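Extended Data, panel c. Modelled sequence:
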Amino acid sequence: MTEDLEIGNKLQDYWQIIISVIIAVNLFSIYIESLKQLNITYFQRIHRVAEIITFEFNYPISIFLTITTFILLSYMLKKDRKKAIIIGILPIFSFLFQSIETGIILTSTIVTFYVAYHEKKYTSYFENLLKILLVIESTTIIHYILLTLGMTSPLQQIALFEYDLFCISRFAAPILVFMFIFAFHSDSIKKQLQRFYNIIDNQNESKKRTITEYRIPPNLVLVLAIIFAVFWAIFPWIPTINPIQIGFGKDAGKFYWTMMKMDEGQYFSIGPRSLFINLLYYCYKIFNLDSFYFVNLLPVILNPLLVFSVYHFVCKSSEDEELAALSALMTSVGFNITVGMHSYFLPNMLGLSLVFFSFGYLLMNLRKKKKSLNLISIILMVPIFYIHPWTFFQYFGVLCLFAVYLIIKRENVTRTRRYKKENVNSLSPLLIYIVSVGLLYILSNIVIPIDDSMNRQQVFVGFKFVVDQFVYSNVFTFNTLYMGIMGNSVYLLICLVGSFLLKKDTYFNRYLSVFILISTIVYIFSHAVFPNGALGNYFPSRLLLNYPLGIFSAIALQKLIHSTYISDKSKLYFMLFFITYMTVYMFRSIYHLIPLQ
């Protein structure tokens, strides 16, 4: 009798596992079939060839949904026959007005969601969905590895299917960025969301698990991030990927042309980015290098330099090596690398690296109060004047307002209109930095004009135009510009979570908060400042490219890893999925930069 009971319990457990798997598979299948029935169209570029694609999935998924829905209905009959009959009959009316496929989708959706709600195995559904996505992403990685090894891949259709899903997910990117730069700056919204989160925590207090305490080895993660950064620079020049060694960087030709002109007799470049161009030229001449490969392989140096500078910035300013290493890793698989290599924004990458090195020492000096650190941070900032002026304007402008913010916050704490001497003194390194760099910028601009492109006509335009242009440029940025590689919705979603988790308890966190807030204002009004359309459409993407998104995504991942309410299995599956997804994103983005040969 006891044995029969144990066998019955085991069968019941197996049956629940099967139902959980079916629910996860159904949710994914319903999504795919819905895309097919809606004839979703999207922009796609393969080897820089642009096409407008209509989503297709040439497999009998509706038959599969019919079978799985019947299984779920059978399961419901054992639990609650009356509700099972009602839920099974209601969708039949849809067959009278729509196609059979639409009726199947509706029926399957209602049945699946009802059983999912009834069983309440949400963690299991989530894990099974991650397994499905993990299989797709892992298979796609194998596809790109086979291509890298010069082998014919039998997995091309799966890789194209994964690319289709990515392209469709780009439609969510403008909404996620809108939430990132607007909604989560509202303290009232944050408080309401935090309150909701606390209610869930209180309800699940009895379910709080004993979670393994993971320790991320920062040095190992940093080395992995640097290896990634170097590999992405080399990958498009592997003979099996690029047999005839064709150039692909949009701005690379400009550097060839400039070096050629300098060879003809112009030995010194003056003006915007002049320091970068002169460094480029003199290194090319001193080491007697081939100009084509010298320019095209510069990311081998600049990619890891940018990754390490992010690590330096986070480590020095927050004293959190784990977060610094994760930030470096997320930067190595983020927009800075993909967009940087698409258009060869090499001065931008070098400028960002110097900013992060400079600000790392600066924010650390707010704690240490050492003159040597202030001097180093100023010296690192000055070259950016003639490397990438816009990066200087963006970060230095935010820094000035960050200083104002800190002074105002300190005044509120002291509850007096006069600043206390010790409060001003504690910010003296920041104020000295701002005054010194500001004066050096003015003096250097008098000697050598830094950025002629800033002399643009600024006009007042109507509110409707700004709104229309804002919407259009956001769709353009994430779906068309740079082959749509900025429309990585999963990455942006993680950054959004990271911005919500950002606390204002350190100089590091406060600076990040002020950075987003101020950049948001510029993001909005760029369409009024540049009403001619073209520049206004490109401007938001360049602004977003300078956002330290790798840091925000790292904040979210660190919180996930150390969460006490998420099971070890869920953490493992999500991290495996996210790592494989971002790796596929990098492979695909860089692989399709190379024109057809």
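The radius of gyration is 27 Å. This feature is highlighted in the accompanying rendering.
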